[in-house]
Specification:
Elements (H helix, E strand, L loop, with lengths): L5 E10 L3 E9 L5 E9 L2 E6 L5 E9 L4 E5 L2 E3 L6 H13 L1 E13 L8 E12 L10 E7 H9 L6 H16 L6 E2 L2
Parallel strand pairs: 4-9
Antiparallel strand pairs: 1-2, 2-3, 4-7, 5-6, 5-10, 8-9, 8-11
Helix pairs in contact: 2-3
Length: 188
């Protein structure tokens, strides 16, 4: 049975700094047409960075769409064509001042495949060294450390109310018990 939809027409409604919004006409497998609204986004990265004391680095920042402060793992958006691993290294350094001796890929997922192209790449890091933050001029955040077991308990209970943070913590917990993958960066 055919399940693929074919794009017949694309119309850009908005082109912005972070995302674009399209209104497409798609031909369905049965031949009829339907409107599909698509948010184009270059994607992002998040990194679960562990200190030698088994603490995860978090950032607390105001999130405008929610109108509240959220506690999240360091993260950031990809620039067009940017390598996700390079972005993870950059974001960890910029937001926390940390540099990782080892970085591990935790995979990726679509944030919400029903309406956006955004892909989020997850990483873990350890063997950290610390320097100064290098925040963007429009970025205001504080760095906090939480013991891994406490962060895991929070993710399993109420959660951090941030899907990328909860997903990275849960995946990292599973891999720590089953064996970490080979690092994608090893500067140790």
């Amino acid at each position: 049975m055919e399940l693929t939809e074919k794009t017949k027409k694309k119309e850009y409604i908005y082109r912005g700094k972070i995302l674009n919004l399209r209104r497409d006409i798609a031909q369905l497998p049965n031949g009829t047409e339907a409107v599909r609204e698509v948010v184009e986004h270059h994607g992002g990265v998040t990194i679960a960075a562990l200190t030698d004391e088994d603490e995860l680095l978090f950032v607390r920042q105001f999130r405008y769409p929610q109108g509240e402060l959220l506690l999240e793992l360091p993260a950031g958006k990809l620039e067009a064509g940017e390598d996700p691993l390079s972005a993870a290294v950059r974001e960890l350094r910029e937001e926390t001042g940390a540099r990782a001796g080892k970085i591990y890929s935790l995979g990726w997922f679509y944030v919400s495949p029903g309406y956006t192209t955004e892909k989020l790449y997850l990483y873990a890091a350890d063997n950290l060294s610390f320097g100064e933050q290098a925040l963007d001029e429009d970025e205001f955040l504080s760095v906090e450390k939480i013991k891994f077991d406490d962060a895991l308990a929070a993710a399993l209970n109420e959660g951090f109310h941030d899907a990328k943070t909860d997903a990275a913590i849960l995946k990292l917990s599973h891999l720590r018990t089953r064996g970490m993958p080979d690092p994608v960066i090893d500067n140790t």
